[in-house]
Amino acid sequence: MPSKWKTPLSPLLANFAALVTVSGLALFAFLSYFYERFYRSFGISPASVGIGYAETMSRSWGFIALAVLYCLAFALVLALFASVRKVLRLISLESLAAQLSRFSKGKEKGASEQGQQQKKNESRTEAQAQGRKRGQRRRRTQIQERKREQKRGQEQRQEEAQKEEKGQWLKLLNSVAEAYSRMLVATLLFYGITFLVGILFIAPILMTETVDNRVWNVKHGGGAGPVTLGPFTLLDVSAHPVKRIYVTKDSGIPEDISRRHLVYLGTTTTGVAIVYDTECACTTMLPSVKVALGMN
Q: What is the pLDDT at residue 218?
């Protein structure tokens, strides 16, 4: 049975489900930290505005998409270099096997020629014993033998030249395979270092600064939108300044609520609007059945 074609990705593919689970939990923990950082600044939790595991992952689809694209690029580069290296190694082994096969055939040919030479020597001895009548034939035979020896010498020199040329090609293939191996190692190191530096240092620093800037804007009466990178949404937080407030009669809500500078943060699953009051730097809960907020 032929052996299956294996690549460095085979162990990862064999444990694909476990890998996806661990990666999903790691991404959730990473994103949850920044959702918590934003909403905890106003005294509430992400769960208060309906952000759980599914919402965290779906609303930060851009961050997940970038991580998946990066991992796919890493996997493709790894598979490409590993496959090319394996093909080069196979070509080198085939060239070496062909060279050894030709060398063994050359030895068998030399052994058979030696046996033929011995028989011819015996024939020549018998011809010498027969006298002068066969002298001329003997001399012709010697001349032919010299020509054959010259021809064999030329063939041997050609075989040696071919072997030397094939040896150079073999060295070239081995050098190319070694170069690809070094390139593969360098690529793995590059992707590994950039991934670790990006995830452990650059991304947290940039995300923390961006989230803190949005918190500052909200506390000073401004709004806050999602954190994006081009078309990709990395962190879907939102806060909108309240322009108008409509309060129903007998709501029990203070009348001066409409004169305060409020910022809408979200609505709970029970229908309670959560707003941040910039004047008292506090969070207020307003039942949606008693209050209507206008943010346009």
A: 94
